[in-house]
């Protein structure tokens, strides 16, 4: 028997809040949220999708039934403190000194990162660091694994433009200085290489 | 108001006919008065902060026209059963912003209500020849936005108790900021066209500018300053209902590049509370405006450009397109 959340007559964001509570109470399965206006339909749908659930909307005389299916495998972990952590890569080689050593260290760094949990939620690549997320990068496989595991991969747009690498981005998204600063400011820690 | 007939007066420089937020009335060759009124229901839990935000919000209309606030009156709705100290805090908060604006509080009016509301009636002054309107943006003008977007989304999240302390404090700080410095920068450079971003969202107020000026505008989604935490809150569906009404009203005249994420579209349609100014500047004066922003410590971003005279439309792309013809 599906849990039914009757959110009719409630102003936003209460339909989303009630849906969130109901989803938190089940580890997997379905719930149905009932609403009476389009705004609520859109917001609840967006919320459920952001949590990795499947959503179907059924319009009836009593209102809109929003069928939400939560599968254990697709459940997104609750945002923890670790997710605000940022790793800032400012150079394609790790450290000052010998370039060969720097290359080896960077490969080792990314490999080790794929073997650990809870280090950070995002990796931001700036200056020559964008060489690592673009074509020809020797650590691309590791970065793609990290992205699969849920880490946010961001490369500075200005840097990509400067090095003419915009069309060669192979992992993650382009970002700008404003977002970079926002993430660093909100981070519980920032690791800079 | 379409049903209500208002007698015309030649001294009225700006009235209902254009979508400006304030009325401008010429007194002498050198002085016009600006009149505006605005009040809000609480969007944050702290009464002092609420007072500051509501006052900044009301004063903004005067700044958007390039004017200087002179006198203000409080407008208060307050439940009889609520502790009067809460009202005191709201008024104290409002007063900090009134004083920061250099204006004088001359009185106010209070009405009993089931929920608190606060705002101001504001009288300002301006040289009639220097009124900044939202109706004379020109082809080639750059558009600058002086505050980050997302205050409406954060307010919705606060109602659902889903905004962290950091996110709330960043948003409240932004909403409580006066548009005074932005106004000062505009007037230093001699800007003619600007508007403030409030209930109709960035797209709604930019559309007012496009309609008033008869132009097509291109906005760049990657250039938009966004408040902390808003991306995630928007993706979670914490979108104020007003965003959808704005979208229904505007969508036929707005196009988005395919790659623009849904949350950014929602953000651009979302109502803002006490938002920044959108300022149109000619390419020749762009550098001067940026220098003025820097000197006056206004964090402004270039977010778009006026592309085409004669066709009213907004196109949202990720970044600046060269050679765009609509």
Question: How would you describe the overall organization of this protein?
Answer:
- By secondary structure, chain A is an alpha/beta fold.
- Chain A has helices at residues 14-24, 38-50, 99-114, 140-148, 157-162, 177-186; strands at 3-6, 29-35, 54-60, 63-70, 86-89, 122-125, 152-156, 173-175, 190-192.
- In chain A, the strands form two sheets. Chain A has a five-stranded parallel β-sheet.
- In chain A, helix 1 (14-24) runs parallel beside helix 2 and helix 3 runs parallel beside helix 4 (140-148).
- The longest helix of chain A is centred in the middle third of the chain and has 16 residues, at 99-114.
- Chain A starts with a strand and ends with a strand.
- The model of chain A has no long low-confidence stretch (mean pLDDT 89).
- Chain B is 35% helix and 25% strand.
- Chain B has helices at 47-64, 84-100, 151-159, 165-176, 180-189, 201-213, 230-235, 241-250, 262-269, 286-295, and strands at 12-14, 23-26, 32-40, 68-78, 104-112, 117-126, 142-145, 193-196, 215-220, 254-256, 277-281, 301-309, 313-317.
- The A-B interface holds A 11-14, 16-17, 20, 37-39, 42-48, 50, 79, 157, 174, 176, 178-179, 182, 185-186 and B 148, 156-157, 159-162, 166, 222-223, 225-226, 228-229, 232, 234-241, 244, 262, 301, 319.
